[in-house]
Design brief:
The chain has 367 residues and is of the alpha/beta class. It has a nine-stranded mixed β-sheet with strand order 2-1-17-16-14-3-12-13-15, with helices on one face. Strand 9 and strand 10 form a beta hairpin. Helix 8 crosses helix 9. The longest helix is centred in the last third of the chain and has 13 residues. The radius of gyration is 21 Å and the shape is globular. It starts with 35 loop residues before the first strand and ends in a 6-residue tail after the last strand.
């Protein structure tokens, strides 16, 4: 019998939905824990409308929350191309470090740039200018920048000059500002190198963490350096033809042991964010269980994926036709994902990075 591709989420159009523009959050709520929380398990469990501050009561003693501790760098740099035939304004968003002095970046307008061009990035008063030469150029504005500084000196310069790399759906509506340096960073941010925030963890503050500890909920951290590839659109209709960007990550022996102990005691493992989930599942691909791990992953989670590491997923509401929405569909089932998102739109949940959250329980594997 021929399988209907519409039935299993094989097509990009399976992940489309209408989203009113007013539901796109441009700022987080305050306090963060007051954001709305949608809780849903597999059918026929009802969809619940709660608040993030209800999380300690939604979980059980012995459950484990796994956070991504990647720290966002101010990766968006504004500058000008220096060439004998004239200058041109350029913006570059750093996406992947190649070595101590080189980064891959998304530049715009990319058509104005050529290999060998020199870019001078604007510096604040009291800071010396930072320059970079375009060493290589790819498609879609992808360039390799060789800077005039290396290592910690380059990091300091980027920190002085750069702005927070807000997602396009926010940056297209307002400019980044000083408040975003605080808002677009999680409570757990420690390992510098991400160019996008693990936004599910933005809802957590000290008050909520104390309440979770008092409720017997355990926590641990892993590291996945989120890249700008998370914002790139899927351009193929058959989703299995899409190529995921690779991201670096690591799971410590202590984090792996926390997962193992939770499993042994009958607790549930809840990934806080799609990045934490992808990293846990990457580490569990070979052994079937999470162990200490370090490397790069381009794992593409979509319907049909066999989960081995996580029982629950806490995540914000994602863009139509995105790989993140495909991950949610894999976790709860395609039909259930559609019902959840229809409910979220109807109940006016706030969407995307600064929006509201959901706590999803994994659908059992098909027999």
């Amino acid at each position: 019998m021929t399988r209907d591709p519409q039935a299993d989420g094989a097509l990009l159009s399976d992940y489309d939905f209408e989203l009113p523009e007013e539901l796109i959050a441009l700022r987080p709520v305050s306090p963060r824990r007051s954001a709305k929380l949608l809780i849903a398990g597999p059918e026929p469990d009802p969809i619940q409308d709660r608040s993030v501050e209800d999380l300690p009561r939604a979980l059980r003693p012995g459950d484990l929350l796994v956070f991504n501790d990647a720290k966002v760098i101010p990766a968006r740099l504004a500058g000008e191309r220096l060439r004998a035939d004239g200058k041109a304004q350029v913006e570059a968003t750093l996406i992947e470090r190649v070595d101590p002095g080189r980064w891959r970046a998304l530049a715009r307008p990319g058509k104005r740039l050529a290999v060998g061009d020199l870019i001078r990035f604007a510096a604040p008063l009291g800071a010396s200018a930072l320059t970079a030469r375009i060493e290589a150029k790819g498609e879609g504005g992808l360039v390799t920048l060789a800077f005039d500084r290396v290592g910690p000196d380059l990091d300091v310069a980027v920190g002085e000059i750069g702005s927070m790399p807000l997602p396009p759906y926010i940056a297209s509506r307002r400019a980044p500002d000083a408040r975003d340096h605080r808002d677009y960073q999680t409570l757990f941010a420690r390992a510098e190198g991400a160019v996008a925030a693990p936004t599910a963890a933005l809802h957590f503050d000290d008050v909520l963490m104390r309440a979770l500890a008092a409720a017997g909920v355990r926590t641990t951290t892993v590291t996945l350096f989120v890249g700008a590839g998370t914002f790139l659109p899927v351009k193929v209709e058959r989703v299995d033809e899409h190529k995921m960007h690779s991201e670096r990550g690591m799971i410590s022996a202590e984090a792996a042991e926390a997962v193992a102990q939770t499993r042994a005691a009958g607790g549930r493992v809840i990934a806080v964010g799609t990045t934490a989930l992808r990293l846990l599942e990457s580490a569990a691909r070979d052994a079937g269980a999470v162990s200490a791990w370090s490397g790069s992953t381009d794992l593409f989670i979509r319907p049909g994926f066999e989960f081995r590491a996580a029982d629950g997923l806490m995540t914000n509401f994602h863009l139509p036709k995105s790989t993140l929405l495909m991950l949610v569909a894999a976790f709860v089932g395609l039909a259930r994902m559609r019902a959840i998102y229809a409910h979220a739109v109807r109940e006016k949940y706030r969407f995307f990075s600064y929006g509201d959250s959901s706590l999803l329980w994994r659908a059992p594997p098909e027999s």
